[in-house]
Amino acid sequence: MGDVTGGGLLVEALLGQGVSHLFTVSGGQILPAYDAAVGRPLRLIHTRHEAAATLMADGWARVTGEPGACLFTLGPGVTNAVTGAFVASLAGTPVVVMAAGIPTDRYDMGAIQDLDQLGVMRPVTKWAVRVLETGRVAEYVAAAFRQARAGRPGPVFLEFPANVLAAKVPAGSWFRASSRAPSIIA
């Protein structure tokens, strides 16, 4: 296997967690994950609104007993997902909510759709973190699934800056996380 993008690592990490359906709304910043899903056994369920994607992930978790997963773009995509995350929080449903973020080199520069996404999602999730290193995508995904299931189940939030999803890392240089991966302290 050659170099892999952060989006490719995300897809492999989701598959490693047993995710078969990813509820999503497309956006340019998450295209590396879409590209990586081609030919893989991860079904992308495209919705017309992020609230629908998050609520569908919640419904998936309630029906299957496994965490639901959803992915969308930054800014309004995140604010649109708050209702679904809040519903999952009230119900104690494990949902892994994921979104792109602005590229790290654009922080504090007034980038389009820049928003404190962690600040928006923290009140309605158990755990909300930003992944800043491409090689650690799988580690954070594993931690998110653990957090969603731990104690009283509930939603968690992962933000992937656009450059983290697009960046490539050499094959074998990333952390391959399993459900027994070391905990990440939030």
Would you mind describing this structure in some detail?
The protein has one domain: Rossmann fold (3-Layer(aba) Sandwich), CATH 3.40.50. The protein has 7 helices and 8 strands, in the order βαβαβαβαβαβαβαβ. The model is unreliable at 178-186 (pLDDT under 50). It has helices at residues 6-16, 31-37, 50-64, 76-91, 117-121, 137-149, 162-166, and strands at residues 4-5, 21-24, 43-46, 68-72, 95-101, 127-130, 156-161, 168-169. It is globular. Strands 3-2-4-5-7-6 form a 6-stranded parallel β-sheet. A two-stranded antiparallel sheet has the order 1-8. The N and C termini lie far apart (32 Å). The longest helix has 16 residues, at 76-91. With 186 residues, the chain is α/β, with parallel strands linked by helices. α3 (50-64) runs parallel beside α4 (76-91).
Comma- or semicolon-separated keywords:
186 residues, alpha/beta, Rossmann fold, six-stranded parallel β-sheet, 8 strands, globular
Can you summarize this structure?
This protein is an alpha/beta fold.
In total, the number of strands is 8
Helix content: 25-40%
Sheet with the most strands, sense and barrel status: 6 strands, parallel
What is the CATH top level name? Alpha Beta
Global morphology: globular
The residue ranges in which pLDDT falls below 50 over 5 or more consecutive positions are: 178-186
- The CATH topology, please? Rossmann fold
The helix/strand order is EHEHEHEHEHEHEHE
Count the domains. 1
**Neighbour order of strands in the largest sheet:** 3-2-4-5-7-6
